[in-house]
Design a protein that fits this description.
Helix content: 10-25%
Strand content: 25-35%
Number of domains: 3
Shape: globular
Number of helices: 11
Structural class: alpha+beta
Radius of gyration: 25 Å
Number of strands: 28
Strand order of the largest sheet: 13-12-5-3-15-16
Length: 550
């Protein structure tokens, strides 16, 4: 991403209202009762605020012994969540939350062996029979959600056929065994067999409140935010980032139980407030308005598309790290990005054939975007086809034969954007052979001293899918975009050529990120050229159209 890599962290919850028809079930009255506070938090259903904006929940932090929060003017405690009764106390502005008598969750890892569409009843039945005949007791899991808005049906569901459940943490090895045995691609589906349980205890001054499983908190003054203290700042996943800070949040904060019985805090916030904080971290706020509007639509689509498809064992749908969308609470807004969010209210990208697209974007494609399957495997997505980011480009595919010419050219590419793209459009990295050998041998000690590095397989953009590293003792093939980049010292992308110059390996490359979907610097370049947000999105996502959901 452009300033902070994001990926979203949201979760829609409660029941569908305001004329929206949800097809994943009906909320029951006991879902907010004291006997089961967690059921609604794990739901894939969502609701809207009084203003017609989706209410979303976002993970703040987990694995905590206590959570401390405060609000200027005081805090309301709501045992039954938003819309439920509030407890007025003489407690002060600051609260400390702990847990008592906790039990951890029970989670199983299943191996996904087939994925089908939910309306393919015949295919699902055949798959179940097929795996029974192979000696397994398969299960089908439906993920995602479906809803209808203004004559448009949004369906993000899929049916997973899964086999061979094992305790959580052991699924990776078992899944690899089945992939090798049957010659198929496999993945892991986690099933929450038993939710964590315990009592949440909130204290402020001489006031103590206890409630099963969850407590909600809102500011007494609706115009105020809640401040959660000591929120970890290592949302990017770096083990070197171990700091923490106090962060403010709009809406409500609820504290519940994490998998191991420790505490987890999450934020329930209107979508527009959430996006207003996310978009300026994804794209420079001083970018042209059309580019900011394109980013706002892409981010909104990404959030909604992930409903019920991630974090299936958590009391939220998406985390707040780079695996989802990095979310740091209130106070990150910028007037220009907020304007873009407001101008595109409720607009998402849909496939021309129906359904929301799988939105991907990266900082700079380097002059050519990439096909999704070349980066992450899986089926080809017709909306995520690699294409030249240069209106005057003469090559439709970057290969070993034309890579030099590609790296030497590209002056007219949309993402060749002067100072803000400096070091991202084109770049060079040099490594001493000794240093590179030391780095690579941590994972591949058998290769010995590195002698040569070459691409065995490239995608349509020239990004390397299979890299061959030849040593004086052995050779290895390295796959996976992120794996290759990290192994070689954190390269900006896998769109590179490598040459040996004396005792150095010189990497000359293009782009910053995976290159799939929208090129954010390219969007800025197109906006500078007078292109509107719909033209920008249409360039990067084939076979799509915009639709206002709310």
């Amino acid at each position: 991403m452009l300033r902070t890599s994001l990926v979203a962290a949201v979760s829609f919850l409660l029941a569908f209202v305001v004329g929206f028809a949800i097809m994943s079930g009906v909320a029951h009255a006991d879902e907010t009762s004291a006997t089961d506070k967690l059921r609604i938090l794990y739901s894939t259903r969502f609701t809207f605020t009084d203003d017609g904006v989706p209410l979303v929940t976002v993970e703040i932090m987990g694995n905590r012994k206590d959570v401390k929060l405060r609000a200027r003017g005081g805090v309301l405690v709501r045992p039954d969540g938003q819309g439920g009764s509030a407890i007025e106390t003489d407690g002060g502005e600051a609260w400390t939350i702990t847990a008592e008598n906790t039990k951890p969750a029970v989670i199983q890892d299943w191996t996904i062996v087939e994925t089908l569409q939910p309306d393919d009843a015949t295919g699902v039945a055949a798959a179940m029979t097929r795996w029974k005949e192979r000696g397994f007791d398969p299960r089908s899991f439906e993920i995602g959600t479906v809803f209808g808005v203004d004559g448009e049906v949004i369906d993000t569901r899929e049916v997973r056929i899964a086999i061979d459940p094992v305790p959580a943490g052991k699924g990776t090895a078992r899944s690899a065994e089945h992939a090798k045995r049957f010659g198929i691609q496999t993945a892991i589906h986690q099933e929450l067999v038993r939710r964590p349980s315990g009592t949440i205890v909130a204290r402020s001054g001489g006031t103590t409140i206890r409630n099963p499983s969850v407590l909600w908190f809102t500011p007494k003054k609706g115009s105020e935010t809640l401040t959660v203290t000591d929120v970890p700042t290592n949302t990017g996943g770096s083990q070197l980032e171990t700091g923490s800070e106090d962060r403010r949040y709009w809406g409500a904060v609820y504290v519940t139980l994490d998998h191991d019985g420790s505490l987890l805090a999450a934020n329930a916030v209107p979508e527009d407030k959430l996006l207003a904080g996310l978009v300026p971290a994804e794209m420079y706020p001083d970018a042209p308005q059309a580019a900011l509007e394109a980013q706002a639509i892409a981010a909104r689509t990404e959030l909604l598309q992930k409903i019920g498809r991630r974090n299936l064992t958590d009391p939220f749908l998406l985390c707040s790290t780079q695996q989802c969308q990095v979310y740091a609470g209130a106070g990150k807004e910028d007037p220009r990005t907020t304007k873009a969010v407001e101008a595109t209210r409720g607009i998402v990208m849909l496939r021309d054939g129906g359904g929301m697209i799988d939105v991907r974007y990266s900082a700079s494609c380097g002059g050519h975007t990439e096909d999704n399957e070349a980066i992450w495997g899986g089926p080809a997505d017709p909306s995520l086809r690699g294409r030249a980011d240069d209106p005057k480009a003469g090559m439709s595919r970057v290969t070993d034969d034309n890579l030099d010419a590609f790296l030497d050219g590209g002056k007219d590419a949309w993402c060749n954007h002067g100072k803000i793209g400096k070091g991202r459009f084109r770049w060079t990295e040099k490594f001493r052979a000794e240093d590179l050998t030391a780095r690579v041998s941590v994972e591949y000690p058998e290769i010995g001293r590195i002698k040569a590095i070459s691409a065995k397989q490239r995608g349509v953009s020239g990004r390397i899918g299979v890299l061959v590293i030849k040593g004086d003792k052995a050779s290895v093939e390295v796959t996976g975009d992120l794996h290759i980049r990290r192994l070689l010292g954190g390269l900006k992308s896998t769109l590179f050529e490598v040459k040996r110059e004396g005792d150095e390996f010189v990497f000359r490359g293009a782009g910053f990120g995976h290159g799939v979907g929208m090129c954010q610097l390219g969007a800025i370049g197109m906006a500078d050229a007078g292109k509107s947000h719909d033209k920008i999105l249409g360039h990067y996502y084939r076979g799509t159209h915009l639709h206002r959901l709310y």
